[in-house]
Amino acid sequence: xxxxxxxxxxxxxxxxxxxxxxxxxxxxxxxxxxxxxxxxxxxxxxxxxxxxxxxxxxxxxxxxxxxxxxxxxxxxxxxxxxxxxxxxxxxxxxxxxxxxxxxxxxxxxxxxxxxxxxxxxxxxxxxxxxxxxxxxxxxxxxxxxxxxxxxxxxxxxxxxxxxxxxxxxxxxxxxxxxxxxxxxxxxxxxxxxxxxxxxxxxxxxxxxxxxxxxxxxxxxxxxxxxxxxxxxxxxxxxxxxxxxxxxxxxxxxxxxxxxxxxxxxxxxxxxxxxxxxxxxxxxxxxxxxxxxxxxxxxxxxxxxxxxxxxxxxxxxxxxxxxxxxxxxxxxxxxxxxxxxxxxxxxxxxxxxxxxxxxxxxxxxxxxxxxxxxxxxxxxxxxxxxxxxxxxxxxxxxxxxxxxxxxxxxxxxxxxxxxxxxxxxxxxxxxxxxxxxxxxxxxxxxxxxxxxxxxxxxxxxxxxxxxxxxxxxxxxxxxxxxxxxxxxxxxxxxxxxxxxxxxxxxxxxxxxxxxxxxxxxxxxxxxxxxxxxxxxxxxxxxxxxxxxxxxxxxxxxxxxxxxxxxxxxxxxxxxxxxxxxxxxxxxxxxxxxxxxxxxxxxxxxxxxxxxxxxxxxxxxxxxxxxxxxxxxxxxxxxxxxxxxxxxxxxxxxxxxxxxxxxxxxxxxxxxxxxxxxxxxxxxxxxxxxxxxxxxxxxxxxxxxxxxxxxxxxxxxxxxxxxxxxxxxxxxxxxxxxxxxxxxxxxxxxxxxxxxxxxxxxxxxxxxxxxxxxxxxxxxxxxxxxxxxxxxxxxxxxxxxxxxxxxxxxxxxxxxxxxxxxxxxx
Length: 824
Ligand SMILES: Cc1cc2nc3c(=O)[nH]c(=O)nc-3n(C[C@H](O)[C@H](O)[C@H](O)COP(=O)(O)OP(=O)(O)OC[C@H]3O[C@@H](n4cnc5c(N)ncnc54)[C@H](O)[C@@H]3O)c2cc1C
Ligand SMILES: Cc1cc2nc3c(=O)[nH]c(=O)nc-3n(C[C@H](O)[C@H](O)[C@H](O)COP(=O)(O)O)c2cc1C
Fold this sequence. Notes:
By secondary structure, the protein is of the alpha/beta class. It is built from 28 helices and 29 strands.
């Protein structure tokens, strides 16, 4: 078999070696335009895990690599005069030039023909004349571009500018420096890769770049400028340049990687941002995956092997690219986090790409996680004591009556998950004893104190009779409250008969509804510490539809009622066309919301939410995709918000001042021309100005042809943006399934409360179980269930210790010792 590899970078050379080693009779030729000793680039980074893979595939090159790398375990973060060191990361740096020499030498020793100084033209018939052609020609791949119609590449040029430089300053940790200047923020990503050599990738946003005049400086002058910025950090060392041009990072994706006997690998097919240090790793692992595809299909069947390669590898590459994308976005928006507590800033940086979580860090760097817990607790303490009662309103802070079966109760749930503390004894700080996990910190909204940060998200039950909740609802809400969440939402409860989504939806427009809800609220208050929030809504154009399990959003075949919306646009083409609301309709709807608010207060709810998300009536006003009005309720965002704000203000005026209110919004429509995260910040600010205490951040469901990007915690970035750009309290929701994720989100300051919907459907005891896992015994448990609580707390301690032990054993081996051996 004849194999041509275009590009003698890490991907091409590694693949060529593995193929030749496995099938020595295969003729493998690598074409490389550079010379073998060209020194382009500085260091490359590999994790312990990647080194394991290299060791398994080619021990010779692995040993040569580890003989030449610098190893570190820690990540160090320098931010606003503070520094944090987080251990247990296991990475090594290696010179790119050395790596290429090692791989080139290894390939040649195996019999690969490496033709250096050979520029390949994509249409050269001699190159294409092989059984297999591998395009490993890097980020600017000429082969990919020549066959763009087949591979369908896309390039997303990111806004930030970066330059790859080097220095002689030594480092014993992967180090981030954040520096604020009069022009803006600069970031340096630094690591050592061989004795007396470190990589310095300098990054900044385009505005800062222009203000600093860097667009007018040449390579040498810009290096001198950066030396001035990071003079302290360089500790007297100079910066070294080597084609250190400022550029924008291109995120490259290809719809296809394979065409006939032609395949793209490495940067040519997909890039991963340098902030997760995975470019070279991804390239070499592509080489491995391509070789494995040949191995698994017998080694001779090119079509089968290439099919296998793309099918098996795509998921992994897309996952890494997704992590890299999330990471690069964090750096692009670093100004959002600038005023954060430095410990939480460091935690946010460590967990930015979702690969590292609270639990991972607790395993690797327990002292750091203790410091994070203390920082979260400290912010709770900084909120100060509960507010005094409002004049003439009685004390909102009165102790609740003892719960059934309990002799007495604390005035409020303890603020931290340790015994012996209460609001009058604030959470201990670092050094004053252990602090609980962030999810068990209390949270206050006006005079409402939540015992923890877990929330049962609103979930329609489609089980009410003429709007009246029944025993199903009593058991459903009752059991979830006993499960221990700090806050629970009702399902969307409609403000009139015609405001319902389906015939099974709950309402709050009748005395019977009020009485039925009061029975449930009373139970929740008597038997649990969970606070209860009433979500009020109007279905708008998504009204008169079937029960969820009979066809969600599908119009009722019979018995439909008239529906209204901002504009006469049906949800699906086959949905009923809503009537455009008149001013009189608006006034009637406002009156319905106010009447339902008053009923909610009489029923005893602790909190009230206005549902302005998911394409229902108020959402249909806010989104430009569903609001085509030409009056003062359509057009600009200010106009589109006018009616939802009128509703909110009227409700706020009817709802007791000491009780909080939230608004659920769809922070993006996931559709061209629709709402974006930036719009959501403005929407949130407008509701906050009207007296909203918490923004409940959901997304989408506005238009039927939206294209949401799902994934773990997929809506959390919108909560992060609103919370940290607008300085508002937020609740996030969406594909959050573990207590570890809840803690990660809270500790990083991406939300103040975390709601879970589907997980609570099958597990009302999510919070109780998490309390046992994180040893937070202060969680309330009704006396009837105390024996169960005691058992799960006891077992969880043992299970946790066993799991930690297993995880420690499963950790990739540290290559530090092998490195020392090889170096000796
Ligand atoms: C400016 C810059 C600096 C970087 N510095 C570093 C760094 O210091 N550390 C790090 O980890 N990552 C660095 N990267 C990223 C890193 O280079 C890649 O992620 C990784 O090397 C990808 O490997 P590859 O084999 O796919 O491509 P590359 O390493 O880019 O290799 C492609 C090879 O193909 C050759 N080639 C291209 N076209 C032709 C042609 N027509 N004919 C013949 N040969 C051709 C090129 O000369 C090159 O040697 C840098 C990227 C850029 C853009
Ligand atoms: C059965 C069901 C009913 C829902 N009903 C409502 C509702 O009444 N009001 C609302 O705002 N969101 C509703 N949602 C959306 C959830 O509150 C939540 O935002 C969504 O399910 C994403 O969270 P998850 O991934 O934890 O399930 C519902 C979700 C489910 C699964």
